[in-house]
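Fold tokens
===========
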Amino acid sequence: MELIRGGHNLRARHRECAATIGNFDGVHRGHSAVLQRLRVAAAERGMPAVVVTFEPHPREYFTPDTAPARITGVRDKLRALAQAGVERVLCLEFGPRLAAMEAEDFVREILLAGLGVRFLMIGDDFRFGRGRRGDYSLLTRAAVEHGFELTRVPTVTLAGARVSSTRVRQALGAGDLELAAHLLGRTYRISGRVIRGDRLGRRLGWPTANIRLHRARPALEGIFTVRVRGLDGVLPGVASVGNRPSVDGRQMVLEVHLLDFEGDLYGQHIEVEFVRRLRDQIRFSSLEALSEQIARDVAVARAYFRRRIAG
């Protein structure tokens, strides 16, 4: 998959395509329905399937203090789009210029002059442009005027409710990993590069691989049984996601203790798959109490994986 960073990097060879537009946070089953239909339409017309997306999320630009938690980081979102068969992604920086751009100008500058869109597919709730003025009606008029095809994908529902990034966030926030996986079409995962921490886990007897979370808050918090990929095989572990209330309570971090593993993981890229929620984060009165609770968490995780193997 080709990643195009910004409209200024569009070239003549990027014109003539079938495209869709959206934030695609989580790349859930609703998104997958759009992408599947886009791939079919693109193949029928002999054109590449292109996703236009934004970074940061527009709500992170307009209301950074109240913006929703990010389900997936940029790297994980791009990987999910590639796995869905997208051939190109145009990632537009959402800043002052894009925020002030009228919907009609977005169509002319990005979709027509930049991408030469011949086929456009959008979700039924898609809005764009300054003041969110751009909608299906505006695009319908533009399609007639400029001669491109336009279609709309209806909402995907599961158990009578709409599949959306908001619903995925709610499931993750409630610790309902089963519902989140059902909505996503896969188990929930976070990937990142292992960084050097304060080595507190090692001093307590529970060394951890630390991944910095780049957004203000993650989509889920707590203590979890996990599987870790990116090393030799798939390794079991226990993970903590949050602000470490018993230590400093400031920086959001993902910490993973791998069961029966020894080695240097610094600088390696790993993927953490969340299997089962164990408990909330708790502030302990001492580091000794924290260490004792970690021992109990590890014992529960070991029992879980033994049952899985035995079953």
